[in-house]
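Subject: sequence -> structure tokens, single chain

Hey, anyone have a minute? Need the predicted structure for the following. Not urgent.
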Amino acid sequence: MCGQGDLGADWAVAARAALEQDQLAVQALTAARAATAQARSAVMTVVREVEAPPLTDEDLTTLPAARAAFEAFTKLPADGHRALADHVEETLPVLRAAYESLREEATTLIQQREDVWAPVALPVAEWITRTEGALAAEPK
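Reply:
Had a minute. Here:
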């Protein structure tokens, strides 16, 4: 070959081994690309499934932070798999913390409203029952 060397049995064995190594490398690369695409798809699905917090609620002071965290989390980079992984790694903890604060505040607010409403709930229910009874007994 090229005026040098011998294309004998040793060369054939070495060439087959090199070809086999190249084929294994191509298979590994193909598998890695498929796994990367699958992982990216899974991340994209997770991002799309995160529910946005309400747009407004005057009583929830943590809502603006939750909205900002959501907007940052869902604004995905377009420049590659590594950038997407870095983005999620950076923004997901902030989103979780903001949603946890919002949940805690909403839970407290619900409890406060129930505490205010509970003393009048029974009298209102009794009044509604009496009113419905009176309306039903009224001649038509």
